[in-house]
Amino acid sequence: IDLNVMLSGNPNQQPVPYKEQTGRQDGNVKDEKKQKRKFLDQFCIDLTAKARQGKMDRIVGRENEIERVIHILTRRQKNNPCLIGEPGVGKTAIAEALAQKIVNRAVPYKLLEKEVMLVDMTSVVAGTQFRGQFENRMKGLIEDAKKSGNIILVIDEIHSIVGAGNAEGGMNAANILKPALSRGEIQLIGATTLVEYRKYIEHDAALERRFQPVLINEPSIEDSIEILTGIKSYYESFHGVKIPDSMISRMVTLSERYITDRFLPDKAIDLMDEACAY
Q1: Which of 107, 113, 269, 272 has the fewest CB atoms within 10 Å, measured from its CB?
Q2: Where does the chain show beta strands of DSSP type E?
Q3: Looking at residue 130, what is its pLDDT?
Q4: Are 153 and 146 in contact (CB under 8 A)?
């Protein structure tokens, strides 16, 4: 018995699909969500999604720094950490470790539903030859983050946003971010070197006030050995080789002795990768 026929009294009337009766379309929900994150999806890398899919190497060490970042993020005000350290010491790895901890639910309840999104500033700036394009992209990112309500943005080389897009009278990225940061509408993790922090961030008092600095020192030889020991399985699997523990110690020691223009653990990891590639 067709319920539509009984109710209408018209035997020629075709049944109306449930979706049309209720007005509910599953695709509409997805489209709304996609539209809500248009700029985030276009200009950001979802570190939380990568961690959930197992596409991220396990982070070894840096527990004190990671805990400090988590502590700052749970503050009511000035809850934006700025990671300060030399290139290659593991600043971006700390943001990745945060994403892994969120996925493993090893964070305070305030952070359990957060998503960590790494902003690709190169993509944001690329192709913005006309005034207003860069500002629209930055404002779009901020609006998407505000609407989502659970986004932690990560900007590597954050000193580069001071003056970014500041051409022909346009606003730079720092001036676009400052109002949203001061009102607590978004959360942001920045990463930069000590020299660049002092040169760009400290000179902008309004911007510097929004961040809590977290100093990331170069790990010791012992800590670097522990880091390489923890991640060597990824390189063994990729290259199809076996790396003895004794070689790990030599890689760290020799890279520290002879590669003087770079920092641990990055230079030791590069040496391990290079050796395994032969």
Answers
A1: 113
A2: 44-46, 81-84, 115-119, 151-156, 187-192, 212-215
A3: 72
A4: no
Which two tokens mark 40? Answer: 């985030």
Residue ranges of domains in the chain, CATH in brackets: 38-215 (3.40.50.300), 221-277 (1.10.8.60)
Which value, to the nearest 10 degrees, does the dihedral of the CA atoms of residues 227, 230, 231, 235 take?
120
The first and second tokens of residue 269, run together, are: 């990891």
In this predicted structure, what is the pLDDT of residue 111?
96
* Torsional sign, CA 137, 98, 232, 52: negative
Alpha-carbon distances of 227 from 161, 217, 265, rounded to whole Å: 31, 14, 8
Residue 249: name the closest of 219, 228, 220, 232 by CA. 228
Mean pLDDT of 2-12: 50
Residues 6+ apart with CB under 8 A from 116: 46, 47, 48, 95, 98, 99, 102, 152, 154, 189
Phi and psi, residue 30, nearest 5° = -65, -40
DSSP secondary structure string for all residues of 53-118: TT-SPPP-S-HHHHHHHHHHHTSSSS--EEEE--TTSSHHHHHHHHHHHHHTT-S-GGGTT-EEEE
Q: Measure the CA–CA gap between 52 and 49, rounded to whole angstroms.
A: 5
